[in-house]
Amino acid sequence: LYPTPVRAFFLDVSPEVALERKGEWGLQWLSEHRDLYRQECERLGVRLLDGEQPQAEICAEVAREVWLSGI
Fold first, then answer.
1. How far apart are CA 67 and CA 62, in angstroms?
2. Where would you tag: which of 19, 23, 35, 66 has the fewest CB atoms within 10 A of its CB?
3. What is the pTM of this model?
4. C-alpha separations of 10 from 39, 43, 51, 62 in Å
5. Does an H or E element contain 34, and which?
6. Each residue's pLDDT tens digit in the chain (71 positions)?
7. Integer distance in angstroms from the first to the last C-alpha of the chain?
8. Neighbours of 58 (CB within 10 A)
9. How many CB atoms lie within 10 A of CB 45?
10. How many CB atoms lie within 10 A of CB 14?
């Protein structure tokens, strides 16, 4: 029904940063789900990025990977 993505990225942040940004769910829930997402990244070949970097650095990293892959 939909094409397989060529690239996928997961912006990883600590549970504390996630709670500060969203104000939802609580530290335990966020910590457990972060662990699950990180495991799935490995299994699915999703590129894990440090979501606590400045936005410009994250964008540059994604752009560089897409550019170098020839997409």
1. 8
2. 23
3. 0.81
4. 11, 13, 8, 11
5. helix 27-44
6. 888 888 899 999 999 999 999 999 999 999 999 999 999 998 999 999 999 999 999 999 999 998 998 76
7. 21
8. 16
9. 8
10. 14
